[in-house]
UniProtKB/TrEMBL annotation:
<dbReference type="InterPro" id="IPR053344">
    <property type="entry name" value="cAMP-inducible_BP74-like"/>
</dbReference>
<dbReference type="InterPro" id="IPR056422">
    <property type="entry name" value="BP74_N"/>
</dbReference>
<protein>
    <recommendedName>
        <fullName>BP74 N-terminal domain-containing protein</fullName>
    </recommendedName>
</protein>
<dbReference type="Pfam" id="PF23621">
    <property type="entry name" value="BP74_N"/>
</dbReference>
<feature type="domain" description="BP74 N-terminal">
    <location>
        <begin position="2"/>
        <end position="114"/>
    </location>
</feature>
Length: 115
């Protein structure tokens, strides 16, 4: 069963929703929200360049199969949500190679119910 989590990036204002379908990843996300998990807390995934109903306001989302959590990542996949949105046509090339997106300042905010 899918679970949905909202997270923020650099300025804490933007919100982005991810879908998790893997029980272990859902449990990990819930441990982050409870404060039990303090190391691997940032979100990583591969961009799919199309909107989804559970993530309104964005023309892309993260492929649920590719989502994971990290402590440290390489700089080449770091960007803000808005920067990705503004440069979506360039994403998956020199910008965010392989469509990998790992906002270093990402932080889960809460679990949300879809729709």
């Amino acid at each position: 069963m899918a679970a949905y989590f909202r997270f923020t990036d650099t300025n804490g204002q933007s919100r982005f929703v991810i879908e998790l379908n893997d029980d272990a990843k859902i449990a990990h996300a819930r441990r982050i929200l409870s404060g039990e998990e303090t190391r691997q807390i940032h979100v990583h995934g591969r961009i799919l360049k199309r909107p989804v109903p559970y993530n309104p306001g964005w023309n892309y989302h993260l492929d649920p199969i590719t989502i994971s959590f990290f402590e440290v990542a390489i700089e080449v996949c770091d960007a803000s949500f808005q920067y990705v949105e503004d440069h979506l046509d360039e994403a998956c090339g020199a910008f965010l190679p392989g469509c990998h997106f790992c906002p270093w300042s990402s932080r889960l905010v809460d679990e949300v119910k879809p729709g």
